[in-house]
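for the recovery benchmark. tokens below, seq after
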């Protein structure tokens, strides 16, 4: 009986993409408003930042604080990068906002039965580290920060014996991870349109100069596009086999990694809501199947 129950578990995979993640926020809000639930979820980078609101059952929170603070120099931008070493101010984003300014519901996060993972990349090995987050404490916020810490734009995050950066370097869309954890039916939310193919990282030469103490991480950056594109082929195969349900934007979202225009943010979020709305019946049929 245990194996049958495991085969029925539904998982959710949330790609990153900095402010493209507002597409995901729109998708998740529609799902929360319609009572959809998953047995487990994994978020990478922005997918972790916005996905945690699904476990705390707080629709609207992701777009709300971004619209409110996108032009605040304490939040993100050159001022933060020059004064703190992080383009997204860690103490403001992972301290002031969730603890005081737009409170994250930690009690709801801990009470919700959905298992939630964040993914970061170990800079010494270039490998993914998957961390299950059950408690709403300082370590949970630090793991989400590590998952979203873009190379060159962020300091290395030292946490639980690891030195960590952006989880998307090692595993951008961790569908296989969820399958290994026993989630046989998975929903994948991407932040790039169908047909997108990743190209080699144009900033790799600069990383090789500034991050030469992390050769395994640099190797992971160098071949990331190949692994990413292979993952897309795997996702398509799983979708064709009926084991995955995939949501993508209809077009390139055209939003900056650090965005100060609330109109651009609202547009990307609204597109996520639109895609989620028109696919809602098909998704319910997939989850019920």
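predicted aa per position
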């Amino acid at each position: 009986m245990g194996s049958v129950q495991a085969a029925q578990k539904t998982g959710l995979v949330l790609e990153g993409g900095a402010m493209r993640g507002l597409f995901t926020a729109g998708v998740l809000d529609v799902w929360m408003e319609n009572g959809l639930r998953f047995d487990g979820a994994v978020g990478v980078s922005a997918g972790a930042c916005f996905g945690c609101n699904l476990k705390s059952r707080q629709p609207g929170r992701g777009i709300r604080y971004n619209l409110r603070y996108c032009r605040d120099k304490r939040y993100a931008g050159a001022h933060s990068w020059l004064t703190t070493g992080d383009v997204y101010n860690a103490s403001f984003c992972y301290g002031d906002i969730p603890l005081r300014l737009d409170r994250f519901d930690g009690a709801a996060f801990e009470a919700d039965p959905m298992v939630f993972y964040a993914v970061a990349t170990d800079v010494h090995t270039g490998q993914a580290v998957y961390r299950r987050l059950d408690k709403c404490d300082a370590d949970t916020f630090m793991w989400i920060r590590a998952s979203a810490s873009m190379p060159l734009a962020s300091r290395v995050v030292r946490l639980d014996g690891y030195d960590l950066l952006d989880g998307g370097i090692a595993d951008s869309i961790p569908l296989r991870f969820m399958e290994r954890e026993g989630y046989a039916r998975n929903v994948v939310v991407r932040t790039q349109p169908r047909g997108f193919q990743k190209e080699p990282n144009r900033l790799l030469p600069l990383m090789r100069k500034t991050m030469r103490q992390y050769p395994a991480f640099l190797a992971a950056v160098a071949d990331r596009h190949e692994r990413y594109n292979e993952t897309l082929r795997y996702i398509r195969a799983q979708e064709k086999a009926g084991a995955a349900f995939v949501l993508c934007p209809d077009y390139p979202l055209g939003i900056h990694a650090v965005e100060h225009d609330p109109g651009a943010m609202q547009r990307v979020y609204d597109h996520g809501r639109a895609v989620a709305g028109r696919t809602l019946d098909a998704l319910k049929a997939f989850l019920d199947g």
